[in-house]
Amino acid sequence: MIVFACGDYGIAGGVPGISMKCIARLSSALLTPLLLPGWALAAPSVPKTETPLPQLAIYAAKGPPDACGPGCDRWIAIEGKIEPGSAARVERFFRERKDTQRPIYFNSPGGAMDDSLAIGRLLRGRKAIGRVGRTVVDACPGTQTDSACTFIKTTRDEVTASIMTRGTVCGSACTFLLFGAVTREVAPDAFVAVHGAKIQMEFRLNVNEKRREEAIAKAHSEADRLTFAYVEEMGISRELMTLADSISPESLRVLTRQELYRFRIDTRDFVETAWTLEKAQRPSVRKMAQIKDGDGFRKLEWQLVCDSKVHARLAFVDELSKDPAAVRIVAMTAGSAKSPQFSRFPVRFGAHEVWSAIITPDAMKNFFAVPRLGIGQKTVLPDGKATSSFFEIETRGLESAWTQLSAICQAAQANATGLKWTLPPASPQVNGNPLPRPASAK
């Protein structure tokens, strides 16, 4: 947790005469926890994750209220490597259960193509809702992929768990499972990744090189025929498979939000995460979103940090307007309650703008009391023309995450000596590399 101060006064919204030195110090300190590797500045890349389960597991889970969306607290998890026989196991699971209309969360590196296509068609027949997310089971004593945890997941009728979307990957043949769902939703911090088909064949010793090449080419052609026909059947653009075929089987290509939309995988104009607690060096409560903006998508992020015993500080990060000379004003509403005041002038860092606001206890309660918060923006161009936009974001997860963060803040303050909420200074980093400080920073 951090408290920011510049000279004799803090950085609360509306402070007049804020100096460039203050802005430089703010940009260095505030943006360190805000810019996530692979999120705000870097191109999407597949994150490092736990070793996947060696074979596909399917099980039922239950979480806290709204764990899987508004009014949803139960879901089905499908995770691990897809191997021959996986389709029969998934079919048996659905045959033996009655409550099979729960949303399904995928967390898989892929595997056998034939079984993946069969599972996808099974899910289409059940009109499934498919999402990318990792199920974290409360009862697992070690990792989520060790043998003890696998036993718990696959032997209990239902496990108590939570969902994490950040960094979860549905890659390779797992995408065919996702495509089979009637409704497909990919959170802004989850990954869908593709590559070309990998053909594995065994040959007799007396097969010459020409026959070997012909057999492999024929197998590739058949794989293309099956997968192109499948994506068309599921309403996905054939352009996706053309892209996948251009990627080496030893690599993975993460699809951008524009591609997820263009290929008809996730056609929502606005996607968002729940508010979640991030237990990093500087703990915070975060929310991310992506909103359609012309032919592309704009990335947004909100972050709450402790500012004192009673106040919180909210930072809002948005990508710069296409016209860098434009001036934007930001407002947030919580029903009919008084709106928090954002800083009049945002801090600009790279391709992003950051607004900051002090959130009082009463304002925080107003946030908890409504299901959605309104975000209004007004952009004034140099020629005086102005455009306005308004959208809403969910408050799902906010109260629980903020309660947890407040407890961490209070514990840190109780153990702190000297200044409140201080941590060693650090330079902003993206993908582990420090960004240069502004020239006026000290």
Calculate Rg over CA atoms: 24 Å
Number of extended strands: 24
For the biggest sheet, the summary is: 7 strands, mixed
CATH architecture of the largest domain: Alpha-Beta Complex
Give an overview in words.
This protein is an alpha+beta fold. The protein has two domains: 5-43 and 270-425, Sandwich (Immunoglobulin-like), CATH 2.60.40; 57-255, 2-enoyl-CoA Hydratase, Chain A, domain 1. Helices cover 27% and strands 27% of the residues. The protein is built from ten helices and 24 strands. Strands 7-8-3-4-5-6-10 form a seven-stranded mixed beta sheet. Strands 13, 14, 15, 16, 17, 19 and 20 form a seven-stranded antiparallel beta sheet that branches. The chain has a three-stranded mixed beta sheet with strand order 9-11-12. A hairpin with a 5-residue loop joins strand 16 (296-306) and strand 17 (312-319). The longest helix has 25 residues, at 209-233. It is globular. The model is unreliable at 1-43 and 417-442 (pLDDT under 50).
